[in-house]
Specification:
alpha/beta
Amino acid sequence: MINDMDGSQNDLLNKKWKKFTRRSRLFSLVPFFDFAFAAGSMALGNPHEYSDFDVIVGVKKGRIFTARFFAVVLFDLFGWRRKKAHDKNTDPKSVSDKICLSHFVTEDSYRLAEPHNEYWHRLYQSLVPLTGSTEKIRFFFDANDWLHPRRAWESDERFFKMRRSFFRVLTEFLLRGRLGDLAENALRNIQIRRIESHPIDDHPKSSVIYGDKELRFHPHTSRRKHNF
């Protein structure tokens, strides 16, 4: 019976990883994208039938709101983005296999700010490099030297290489200078107004950060912080 359960769980995990990988290839269209880590139940290897796909997304410094805008639009367009927060009233089927774009980091926020409690240690220790720049992934692990044992880049069969799409190359070219700065500022203002127009979870274990270095929307984790 245990073996049957283990086999069933492995089948589910493999099935979900295939779908996770296919859907993550959409990051090839996101301008200023650096890397993505799989997190949560997929990284831990214990998803259930209706699990979503948690990711930590690394993006270029100074373009975090631009990258998030394009990621949200693109994954929404394909119907692959998780929109609803974790809630007891949420229909589990509505979030199944959706990409949860709840955490964006830049080089200035690769290192997780303290306190490094048990939750964050378990989360960061289990991260699975999914795709992107291996150099940036190395920098990310080096920055988080508080982990014990230390993490480092290692070849993983779940990691896949991905070329930048023509759309991404063109968009990065157009938004590389002054025009890009103006777009980033406009998108920053729009997104922050939208974030602040919704009630922010006051649960003592909530973790909400929105600023130029990091965007994090994790309800019921370890802390809440507004970082500009």
